[in-house]
């Protein structure tokens, strides 16, 4: 009898927990790689993205959304931690430079290179670890870019399931990074799918994950595509463009010439490289292929009748490069002009009150993801951790203005600082003070006409640098 009573009490205690878990929103986070600010079909530049356009019509498109660094590795660390790169320790690229000059690593060389041994500090707490405490199943399929050793891998950091590559880029078909096989399942290297276009593989694995967990567990599904990043192959003809399936290339007008010969290639001249016209076509085809995969995710969620209570977030990891269109922004990937750090972003969550068909110019960033997803899942934030992001749901519901009033960027000696509508940029010998409210393209420098505002931004930037330097040090770059 005592056992029976304890069993009944146990059931009564656990039922509310199960019900609460079932009511928690699912999360589908999609991050593209090097996609331009203007590269959405609904913006009218000719690129084909019907599924992203659908998300924009059914959700809110953010036009004033930033990432924390103008290239991939630090940007990805920040979106997962909610912390500036200078605070979480990943404030530069975890990559090898030698392939930029035509060097192919031997297996022995690669095994001890920084790209192989570097990784995000193990003390950092990331989104899947926060959501796991609320009963979420966590999957990632695509580009990790935060360390290749087992202790740095996704399944060692809160993810339950991983298939993808761990470094900064690969050949879309061989899955090699400059000749090094790079695909991994959970903790084990795999060449089982060599020859298959990797966007299709990430689509396949994400759909498998949805089949296993959608409608059963609350889930966090992170799909960081490598599209439309250039191929990481040593061959100049491949490396100089984006790889894309032929059927998606054929959706765009034919080009006059696929390749050209140049005597100014970074290594080995003369070299055959893609023409600007074919690079543009290939870039667009890769985006359209990715968009088709996104459409399958949305269709699956809709078929399972859980789409409206799934938070769907899409953005690019940094500004566009190669064949991208960043108009009307100035600059591109790798720079602290707006074109390197302001990116397209769409959020869809009808059950959470996110407006449909809305365009928001509120100042928001990828640093907001962790606190916002924790709030949506009704789970506590990590203790003892300083976050640089805010809960964005009141802003996206139209209940309050964005709590973000400033943001800072530092890539080596390249600097960006935004306070309110004003932005100070230092890009080598170029830069200036710009009023983003009236000049999103950063054309008119106000340094001489508003020296007091420039001084204020420089002072705020100096304060931020001091705060970052006084933060508890994190690897891999800090000396401690």
UniProtKB/TrEMBL annotation:
Keywords: Hydrolase. The keyword Hydrolase applies. One of its GO terms (molecular function) is arylsulfatase activity. The keyword Metal-binding does not apply. Residues 25-378 form the Sulfatase N-terminal domain. Pfam families: Sulfatase. It comes from the Bacteria. SUPFAM superfamilies: Alkaline phosphatase-like. Its EC number is 3.1.6.1. Belongs to the sulfatase family. This is Arylsulfatase. The gene is atsA_4.
């Amino acid at each position: 009898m005592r056992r029976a009573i304890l069993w009944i009490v146990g059931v009564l205690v656990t039922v509310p927990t199960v019900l609460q878990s079932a009511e928690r929103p699912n999360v589908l986070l999609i991050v593209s790689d090097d996609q331009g600010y203007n590269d959405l079909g609904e913006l009218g530049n000719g690129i084909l993205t019907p599924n992203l356009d659908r998300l924009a019509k059914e959700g809110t498109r953010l036009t004033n959304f930033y990432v924390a660094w103008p290239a991939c590795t630090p940007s990805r660390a920040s979106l997962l931690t909610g912390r500036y790169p200078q605070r979480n320790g990943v404030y530069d690229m975890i990559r090898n430079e030698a392939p930029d000059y035509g060097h192919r690593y031997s297996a022995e060389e690669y095994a001890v290179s920084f790209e192989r041994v570097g990784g995000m500090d193990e003390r950092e707490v990331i989104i899947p670890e926060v959501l796991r405490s609320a009963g979420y199943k966590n999957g990632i399929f695509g580009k990790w870019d935060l360390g290749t050793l087992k202790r740095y891998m996704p399944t060692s950091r809160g993810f339950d399931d991983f298939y993808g590559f761990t470094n900064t880029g690969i050949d879309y078909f061989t899955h090699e990074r400059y000749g090094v096989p790079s695909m991994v399942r959970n903790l084990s290297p795999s060449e089982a799918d060599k020859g298959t276009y990797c966007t299709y593989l990430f689509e396949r694995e994400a759909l498998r994950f949805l089949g296993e967990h959608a409608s059963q567990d609350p889930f966090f599904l992170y799909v960081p595509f490598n599209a439309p990043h250039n191929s990481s192959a040593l061959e100049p003809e491949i490396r100089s463009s984006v790889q894309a399936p032929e059927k998606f290339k054929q959706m765009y007008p034919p080009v006059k010439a696929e390749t050209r010969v140049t005597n100014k290639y970074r290594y080995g001249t003369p070299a055959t490289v893609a023409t600007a016209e074919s690079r543009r076509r290939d870039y667009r085809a890769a985006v359209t292929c990715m968009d088709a995969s996104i459409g399958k995710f949305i269709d699956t969620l809709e078929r399972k009748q859980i789409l409206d209570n799934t938070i769907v977030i899409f953005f690019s990891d940094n500004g566009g490069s190669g064949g991208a269109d960043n108009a009307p922004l100035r600059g591109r990937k790798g720079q602290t002009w707006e074109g390197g750090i302001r990116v397209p972003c769409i959020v869809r969550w009808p059950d959470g009150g996110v407006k449909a068909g809305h365009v928001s110019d509120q100042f928001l960033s990828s640093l907001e993801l962790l606190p916002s997803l924790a709030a949506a899942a009704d789970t506590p934030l990590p203790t003892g951790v300083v976050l640089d992001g805010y809960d964005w749901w009141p802003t996206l519901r139209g209940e309050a203005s964005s709590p973000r009033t400033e943001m800072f960027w530092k890539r080596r000696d390249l600097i960006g600082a935004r306070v309110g509508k004003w932005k100070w940029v230092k890009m080598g010998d170029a830069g200036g003070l710009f009023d983003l409210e009236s000049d999103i393209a950063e054309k008119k420098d106000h340094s001489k006409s508003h020296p007091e505002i420039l001084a204020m931004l420089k002072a705020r930037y100096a304060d931020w640098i001091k705060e970052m330097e006084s933060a508890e040090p994190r690897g891999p770059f800090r000396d401690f």
